[in-house]
Amino acid sequence: MGAYILRRLLLVIPTLLGIMILNFALTQFVPGGPIETIIARMEGGGDVFESIAGGGGDANVGGQEDSAYPGASGLSKDFIADLERQFGFDKPPLERFLNMMWNYIRFDFGESYFRSISVVDLILEKMPVSITLGLWSTLIAYAVSIPLGIKKAVRDGSRFDTVTSAAIVVAYAIPGFLFAILLIVLFAGGSYYRLFPLRGLTSANFEELSMIGKVLDYFWHITLPVLASTISAFATLTLLTKNSFLDEIKKQYVITAKAKGLSEKKVLYGHVFRNAMLIVISGFPALFISVFFGGSLIIETLFSLDGLGRLGFEAAVARDYPVVFGTLFAFSLMGLVVGILTDITYVFIDPRIDFEGRG
């Protein structure tokens, strides 16, 4: 197992490098950049897309007809050159990429171009929202889907199985943002009841509340966004659990255990459970990371939550490259490490699995 983990760790390096090279190369061909964003704001457009289209100012103070930046007609060459030096765009792309990767290897992700805050501090600032949505959505999905999947496997083909299958398929088909809008309309003062707040993770007087009051206030605020984030996760996990149990129930060792007189409950939870839950439990790290880092921009926007989803979108639109590439590097690295942890979880749950034998 040690040699297998070492090989996987060594593969992380070229994989991560390939991800960064591909995304860095793409940014060299995408119109716009941080300098264009600043020019658009200074020229009064306020939108990087207007500057790309040539919608900048009308004045020609600096004589910039041949400027590389559309919309920069009112700015001097010295000012543009100074901007390029500040952002490092006076260097060739290869040098900029190598400098960036050298800093990232040392976990120095730099500072946001437009927020005057380090990328690490910015991520930590948005982390509570992503932790809330990712952690609770994952836990609720497992808490509901595993018991439901087991019961569906035991009662396969029954009316209960048919009705619940129809319900989870419908839930899976409903987009999360549409379900979020429905929850807002029904329960957040949209048109009917005002039972839940519409914005933030806590109330304005959160610090003044007692410990129990803080806990209740926190859960009061997260109920609707967590439900909206979880609605589509039930179907896949429930059906995965059901099919895993059905596969195990049909195996010979289960028939033998029943022939020995063991009760159905003991056979199910004493023999079948460990084997059937292997694929479900081992997938927990990957599922949590995917929900955690794949924060829903629309869910966060609808419930006025400032999380990683909105951070990534705003950074991409503003061409805030330190945030874009810093988060890409950190999250890609975590995703690759989680893949290794998933394999280790397989072995921990079932020691019979030997990844060395696949080598």
From TrEMBL:
Subcellular location: Cell inner membrane; Cell membrane
Segments forming domain ABC transmembrane type-1: 127-346
Record-linked InterPro entries: MetI-like, MetI-like_sf
Residues that span the membrane, as ranges: 9-26, 129-150, 162-188, 218-241, 276-303, 323-349
CDD domains assigned: TM_PBP2 (cd06261)
Gene Ontology terms describing biological process: microcin transport; transmembrane transport
Bilayer topology: Multi-pass membrane protein
Gene Ontology CC terms, in alphabetical order: plasma membrane
UniProt keyword annotations, A-Z: Cell inner membrane, Cell membrane, Membrane, Transmembrane, Transmembrane helix, Transport
Protein family: Belongs to the binding-protein-dependent transport system permease family.
Name by which UniProt lists this protein: Microcin C transport system permease protein
Lineage: Bacteria, Pseudomonadati, Pseudomonadota, Alphaproteobacteria, Rhodobacterales
